[in-house]
Design brief:
Elements (H helix, E strand, L loop, with lengths): L6 H25 L4 H28 L5 H28 L5
């Protein structure tokens, strides 16, 4: 997605880049989890970073930064779906292993 160029937008886009790339890197770590606890902890990080990415996309929308709004809406929907998937995975793992928190 291409955004207008100015200092404030650069800061927001950098934050989005950091959180979204963290989702990818940490998901790779999830796939290499050494134990159920390790898998769960890493999946929690993925969920948090995906939620942060969703925040930054919604922030961009709220600021009405010039961009392709159709693409922005698609990315927001996709990020929201990923957060729901990761959150559901965490709940399932916790239920299967009888973990309270």
């Amino acid at each position: 997605m291409e955004l207008e160029k100015n200092k404030a937008v650069d800061v927001v886009s950098y934050q989005l880049f950091k959180s979204s790339s963290s989702v990818a890197a940490n998901y790779r770590a999830v796939c290499r989890g050494k134990s159920n606890a390790d898998f769960l902890n890493k999946l929690k990080i993925v969920d948090e970073e995906a939620d942060e990415s969703l925040f930054w996309l919604e922030f961009i929308k709220g600021l009405e930064i010039q961009c392709n709004t159709i693409e922005l809406e698609r990315l927001i929907k996709e990020a929201d779906e990923l957060v729901a998937i990761f959150s559901a995975g965490i709940r399932t793992i916790k239920e299967k292993n009888n973990i309270k928190n």
